[in-house]
Description:
heterodimer, A: mainly alpha, Rna Polymerase Sigma Factor, Chain: A, Arc Repressor Mutant, subunit A, 75% helix, disordered C terminus, B: mainly alpha, 0% strand
Amino acid sequence: xxxxxxxxxxxxxxxxxxxxxxxxxxxxxxxxxxxxxxxxxxxxxxxxxxxxxxxxxxxxxxxxxxxxxxxxxxxxxxxxxxxxxxxxxxxxxxxxxxxxxxxxxxxxxxxxxxxxxxxxxxxxxxxxxxxxxxxxxxxxxxxxxxxxxxxxxxxxxxxxxxxxxxxxxxxxxxxxxxxxxxxxx
Amino acid sequence: xxxxxxxxxxxxxxxxxxxxxxxxxxxxxxxxxxxxxxxxxxxxxxxxxxxxxxxxxxxxxxxxxxxxxxxxxxxxxxxxxxxxxxxxxxxxxxxxxxxxxxxxxxxxxxxxxxx
Lengths: 185, 115
């Protein structure tokens, strides 16, 4: 195990601080992808770090520290969504990517329609897609973090991709590239 | 045979579409990775850690205090009932045992139904 992690486990706050500083950009960017909102991502990053301090004794070093951070951040976001839904403070899926889009435009960065399609998906579908196809985690790992079975993760990823394809009209494009297959149907 | 061929072609088409969607998604998400993130200085992180460690200590003291107070109340009640009202002491023991057995039974049934 890394010396920083070992010292952090002993309660050394400087080691903790260095560990967090090192992993902060990774954590915020991951949260930005799943929340699609830079402000929410920064808020949740703070909350995730607080939880890490509380739960550091549970980290056994079997997985990478970043993987452990991702699992805590994912749970923190899911808990926040549940809380907001319970308090009827939920804004729905329509608006969440707007802030990110605005940030992109204010920096003259080209906005990707795919992000819009991803932002329209519910968070319980968006998260597994990002974890599986961007970070490369297994269905088992994702299922463990989200407290659902690997089969459910697989079907959510599959259906989510279908929705993204529909939003981006990718199917139509591909279907037109394979006209002979349509006739065989 | 023809049906099998159609299924294989459909699957290949589906895979191609999925592959295109995944590729587009990865490109979009990569743009977020290129997004500049402001990292605060080390003191800011240290402050968060110290604050959280203090909160953890406070929570532990609070939980332990609650635990010892509740344990003291229960034990005092049990000792008083044992010496002054043995019938009530025995009744409480029986009720507690039944409650634990019923509670574990219900939880096991619920778990079995859930699976």
